[in-house]
Each structure stands twice: as structure tokens, then as C-alpha cells.
From TrEMBL:
Residue intervals of the AAA+ ATPase domain: 28-174
GO biological process, one term: DNA-templated DNA replication
Catalytic reaction annotation: DNA(n) + a 2'-deoxyribonucleoside 5'-triphosphate = DNA(n+1) + diphosphate
UniProt-recorded Gene Ontology molecular function terms: 3'-5' exonuclease activity; DNA-directed DNA polymerase activity
Name of the protein: DNA-directed DNA polymerase
GO cellular component terms, A-Z: DNA polymerase III complex
Gene3D superfamilies: P-loop containing nucleotide triphosphate hydrolases
Any Pfam family the entry gives: DNA_pol3_delta2
Keywords (A to Z) from UniProt: DNA-directed DNA polymerase, Nucleotidyltransferase, Transferase
Organism: Nitrococcus mobilis Nb-231
EC number: 2.7.7.7
Amino acid sequence: MSAAQTDHLPWHQPVWDRLAACHRRGRVPHAIAVVGSAGLGKSRLAIRFAQALLCASPRSDGDGCGRCRCCHLQAAGSHPDHYAVHPESEPGGPIKIDQIRRLIEFLMRSSQYGGYRVTLVDPADRMTLAAANSLLKTLEEPPAAAVLILVARQFSQLPATLRSRCRLVQLQPPPAVLAREWLAEHCPEAIGLLALAGGAPLRAMAYAQAGTEGRYAALIADLLAIVEGHRSPVLAAQNWTGIGLRDWIELLQLALAELARAAFTECELDRIPGRADLQTLTERIDHSCLHDYMEEVVATRRILDQPLNEQLVIEDLFIRWRTATRGARLAKDRVSGYAAKVAVGRTSGDSIGLYQG
């Protein structure tokens, strides 16, 4: 058994059993979409299934044997019947139409080993609209013995006509007990970050390895300092120079999501980094401002493929945070002050203008 086969993710098993059953029966869909939040191992599941499809003699559990020539070629990344497409520039960058055209050309060729031709697009939700529409034409009349595997975090971003032609494989976060058991074996220091990672074990592991806990707590502290007027947006932005704009915005979205969760649900704040500042921030802001600000952050994330000045973008989002929270806070203070005057007026017998006329 190969090392890869001994490191399968246990929460994949129910989904894997269904995929393996389709393979055994010879009823593999021509297009499969592996969908789920970050940190669940979508890419690992997609690669595992591609290896099984290309294996000359799959095992009884559906995995590739790891011994045949096809498995060796796949492990070396040189199997002639496998083709993968990823962003050409940075991770998270766009997948362009020229890349999809080359994939389509590959699908039109004959199989070198007489089996499936397997293609992988990861992440598929980073395809440009032109690239997605180009792929749609192939899915409408798929070549024989060709399998396309799409990996996506935000499946809804793909055109509906493309989504409708894919067999959906949805990954969900595993039960907390299973996630903690797996992390205890592979990365014990990540267990405390599991709540922050939305229950996704691989994401919690990545946070632990990247030092995200400290950066997250620092960002919460900056957001609170801006709300309280102790730090200017420009000064706060200087603390984040060099982090990478895409990573910083992801961290900001994580903080805003946790803030919303803390405000509207009974979440376990004692397990969240920066929990004291997060609790204070939850009490200091009017939560009606959160939704609009989160939409502004999402809009900014959509233009990250353009050449942007990292420092200016971070400053702008911090300024917008101050504007949003200050406006909501001032309105809240006016209402509270007015209510206090009413209470005083009723107690002292003064009308304070409420009963004029």
C-alpha cells in the first residue's frame, strides 16, 4: 500500500464509497464537481479518484493499486491520459480561456492506455466567464470515456448551465470528535483553532503552521482600536505591510464572519483567538453595519486579479470600517441619549418637548 493510501482523510469515506461504487459499475459521470469549504481536502479527494480511474487494476476498496505502470506514471505526474489545469500565476488567480481550450484539445484525443481520459480543473470557481462558457460546449456533447473533475469552494460562482451538467460531490465538515481525533494524531497544536477554521481540520492545520492565530488576534485588536478611536486606519494598515493582499482580505473576512457569529449565535468564544477583544468588539458596534461592510469586502476581493496597491487597499478597507461602525455607533448613541432624556423627563415631570401642543 502506498503512503498516499495510508493517509486518506477519514471524513471522505462516505463520499468515497459512492464514487468507488460508480466506478465498479462502469457508471462514472462525465463531469464531477467536488465542492466544499476550505480545509476539507477537496483536491485530495479529486486526485484520489483520478488515480483510481487511471489504474489498470483498482483495489477492492476502489483505490488505485499503487503498483501498476499507470499508478507509477500518475505518481510521477506524467500519465499521458491525465491533464490538470490550475491558475498559471499565483494561487487563487484566474483560470483563463486558453488553458481550457488546451484541456478541450486533450479530451478530443484518443486514450494512450485504452481507458479513461481524466481532466482536473482546480479551483474551477476561478475560471473566467469565457473559460467556463468554453468548457460548457464540451460538456453538452462529452467525448466517450472522458471524465472532467471540477474542484470548487464557491460552486455557485460557476454558470448555472455548467453546474447543471455536473454530478455534485458535496463535502461537509466532519463531526467535531472525528476532527479533533485526526488533528490529535497529525497536528495537536491545531485543535484549538478548529472553531476558527469552521470545523475544517486541514484549514485548522494550515492556520497553526502559518501562525494565523497571532495574526487573527492582531487584526481583531486593530478593528477594535479603530472603533474606539485609539488607532487611525492609516496607522493600522502599516502593521500589515507585506502580508499579501489576498491573505489579508481572507483574514478580514474570517474575522467579520466570526464577529457576526458571535453577535447572533451562542458560539464558543473561549476557543477563539483574541476572544476578549472579539467580545468587546461585539458589544461596541451596531451589528446592522456588519452586512453592508462585509459586502464591501467581498466586492474588493472580486477585483484582486487587477494590479492594486496593497497598502492603499488595506487603508481603504480600514477607513470604510471606521466609517461604517462610527455611523452606526453615533446613531445608536443618539437613540440611547434620547431614551435617557425621555426617562429623566418622565421622572422629573418635564415634558422635554414630547407633549407640546
